[in-house]
Amino acid sequence: MTENCKTASEVTVAKAKGRPMLTWVGKKPLTRLPAYPAQAIERFDVMPEQALPLQTADWGGWPDGLPIGGLLYHGENKDVLAHLLANGFRGEVNLIYIDPPFDSGADYVRKVNLRNAKGIARIEGEDYSLGEQIQYGDIWANDTYLQFMFERLLLLKELLAQNGSIYLHCDQRRSHQLKLVADEVFGAENFRNEISWKRTSSHNDTTDRFSKVKDTILFYVKSDKAVFNTTYQPYSQEYIDSEWNELPSGRYYKCENMLDPQAKMKLHDFHGTKARWRTSPENMEELWNAPETEVPNSHGRIKLGKNGMPTKRCRIVFMDELPGVQLSDVWDDISYIAGRAKEAENYPTQKPKKLLERIIHSSSNPGDLVLDCFVGSGTTAAVAQSMGRRWIGCDINKGAIQTTSKRLQELMKAQYAELDGDRQGRIVDEEARVPSACQLNFTTYRVNDYDLQIQHNEAVELACESVGVTRTRTDAFFDGVQGDRLVKIVPFNHPVTPLDLEALRAELRIRPTEERDVMIVSLGIQQDALAWVEQYNQNRPVNRLHVVELRTDRKYGGIFKHEPMSADVSLERDGDKIVVEILDVISPTIMQRLNLGQGLFSVQISDWRSVVDCVMIDLQYQSPIFNITVSDVPEGKDDLVQGRYELLAPAPGSAVAVKIIDMLGEELLLTFQA
Description:
single chain; alpha+beta; Rossmann fold; five-stranded antiparallel β-sheet; 13 helices
């Protein structure tokens, strides 16, 4: 694979053969699809050039043309999965965890706090940008959602190794349907568990039903060769009190029944007690001759009755010699992430690390490859990295990629700091037995990202994609639907006028059975047209009008007009060093959102660093790949970037690039000559 190839290949996908099958409108198999190339856009490697590569995983089968290390993809995951299939990952992924949108009708918006700012400094992050609703907005129609998941599960099955497993996270709205879809794709015989995760406590927020406290995780395998590591939990105190006896030393013991429940063993006399014992005479003798214990009235590991002979419940077992109780399919010991939790990334669907630790431990081994194609805040990739697994993550949301990248940079730097003295790539944590890291680097790619030429027709398509409109080519008047609303796109060469609205009303009059509301998408609207809409909507139960003005609408606006972030940055050479200093950063988008809905400006930003999330520097920049040689990611939410960086100077004439990312995820790249 070449990093900047412009042509797409094609991959084939096997048919789903499982039964039963769920049917929906528009269901169609996914047999072949284009595989677009990927462009490397950013690299991070914490290992210095003189350090030896990590030797903790078998990279022998790694595809040619891809750097050894973590892979993070920015793109629509259907395109990314096809790209992986075309580039050597078919049948290579050992574990897949996905937490797709639940089709809940929720509008997930990232909440952002400015760093160390005075006043009300909480703002909303990106609502949805180009195409993101299609994958992340949770606003799809029923059949579209099922087709969306069907296609991705088919692709994921192709990537899964024969010993692989997949965990599909969902909730009560879709779990029953997704289970049927997964049965069809993976085969009902490969279903293992429907795990109930009790994510929160019951709330007094319902009067017509029981409080909802759980999510569902569907667990499937590729075949009966799948890896599974049994997990045990401590015994409950209630069980200990009812079944076990405590000795003066504090050890707990109990006596097990040693009779054959099916009465198939021969009768034999064991030190005076004649019975059909459940094990051989030789094994019974081993228990009799075992070292003495502190259990009263016993011989070896055999409990004696009042007559001095073995009882029928005679085998002595100690609690501290047993692994515990096997984990069930009800997980009620892992809480959701509260807003102030240490691991919180302010990402709306973030899952706790303990949840992913359990899944990754159960269905993979150190060195295995873990994939999450809805990576979100990056928990799967971060936990896989911590647990000595290789990983691939992708997301269509740019904020998700930035959050994940930043999180992995911090983690890898911490892991590198714990490398032992011989630099052989072994992480030292003997007490916790943390597996060695498989990689201390990763590369970020972009898949199928081509420049859009904004002519009129393309602008309409862009608007439809941004707003989430499904085009209907068969309707002579309306341009499509968004959810349960009709959509009318007013030509972008003029603002909405009362004449446009009268034409809309006339069309609705000839459709007396049409009861849906109407979304009007425009590039500008006259004041008299706004008054017309307000009067029209008064006391109107059906066909209400909703205007989306693409320049100013809070949720959908800004796709045609955007004032970019700017910064004042200096670079000076001082002998064998250079000094990069950031003097000021201005983020118009943040300033605009801080002012939304506020009569007076309530946030005072006295330090430009309050709006900056992180700073990265590439001392040998060669476009288009940004190699992160300096990564300034503040540890705490109230900590600030340094802003001044004294570094070893690169060769004269080298290009030095400075990347600044603000708290909303907007990036600014500045280049200098060293």
